[in-house]
Amino acid sequence: MGGDEFPRVRAAAVQASSVFLDRERSTAKACALIREAGAGGADIVAFPEGFIPAHPVWFHFHPATGEVATRLSVELFKNAVEIPGPEIDELQRAAADAGAYVVVGVCEKLPNTTGTLYNSQVFLGPDGALLGRRRKIMPTVGERLVHTGGDGDSLAAFNTRFGPASALICGENSNPLAIFAVTAQYSRVHVMSWPNHFPAVGTPLRDRVAVDSRAFAQMSKAFVVSACGTVDDAAVARLELSAKDEALIRDPDFCGGSLIVAPDSRIIAGPLGNEEAILYADLDLDIGVRMKLRHDFAGHYNRPDIFQLTVNAEAPRIFGIANATPTARPALTDTSAVADDPTAIEHVHQRAIGNGGDGGR
Asked: What GO annotations for molecular function exist for this entry (predicted)?
């Protein structure tokens, strides 16, 4: 048969706990898991939110300005990742060894800064190249106490050998405009990174992950690889929880639940429980074509004459020096005549700088 042939893609969702607030050991664990997934034949490997060094789960249990939350937040900053940096170098080597695309959730800081953090995802290529990074555009509830939002360029898809791939973090995956921004770029495989724990009244986290994953797949007609975190005993010990809160954080309904969904919204792998594991699925990209022949919201099944979405991808600048060469400016001391006679400003200027006027004192 002639025509295009789409490659088969093996996806892997890593479900694991960080080495809590330990950047170096979390990186080493991530590298080992990347290599394990590569040995399992994975072409793309997805990690949970904030895997290096941890997700700031303590804000669910401790006052924001209390001693415990403040201490853990300082540790989070000290263990945050710079991009590029030594931890990224290690991840790049692991991706090259695995021969896989990799999306890793990290807490990011900028070099030579103190205090501002980003909830980020790092994209790595199968040759070990750093393809880029994106930042969660709107931190969720307690995350806002340590994370700031990313810019519009954080909605860009990345090119792979099997077509565009995209990623969003946690609640972004239910943002209708973010979903369409990804859909409009014809993403074929979408990574969702989820935290290790997210208590909420009502629907357990694992159920919300399944709903969001299936809904995203239905709307975008992309495969969805959802990677969720877990909580280990070491993290629980560091969090200094009450007995009630410890029971909640250990509740299997509120952690884990990784799964992989096809473009027709079928769950094709998972969901996992709350154990550490790597979940695999083989992706038939033809399914996305079949589904988009019916509903292509980036193309024939939309009305750009009615609906349009504009994404501002330009990063705002908080500080800049407009003129590096200082220049002296005369003081304007008498403005009473200017309102009545605009030409009078020149006379005021002359009085301010000459002949013993008040401005010369």
From this structure: catalytic activity
Paired strand residues for 190:
166, 224
> How would DSSP label each residue in 7-72?
PEEEEEEEE----TT-HHHHHHHHHHHHHHHHHTT-SEEE--TT-BS---GGGGTS-TTSHHHHHH
The answer to whether 170 is a known catalytic residue is: yes
- Residue 331 structural domain: 321-361
The pTM (predicted TM-score) of the whole model is: 0.87
116 in the same domain as 21: yes
Given pLDDT bands bounded at 50, 70 and 90, which one contains residue 355?
very low
Residue with tokens 């050991």: 25
In a domain, 191, yes or no: yes
Active-site residue flag, 136? yes
- Choosing from 29, 31, 49, 221, which is the catalytic residue? 49
DSSP letter string, 102-159: EEEEEEEE-TT--S-EEEEEEEE-TTS-EEEEEE-SS--GGGGGTEE---GGGG--EE
Lowest mean pLDDT among 231-240, 283-292, 351-360: 351-360
The domain boundary residue, chosen from 271, 292, 313: 292
Question: One of 136, 143, 221, 292 is an active-site residue; which one?
Answer: 136
Say which of 170, 221, 228, 292 is annotated catalytic.
Answer: 170
The span from the CA of 21 to the CA of 24, in Å, is 9
User: In the Cβ-directed half-sphere of 236, how many Cα atoms lie within 13 Å?
Assistant: 14
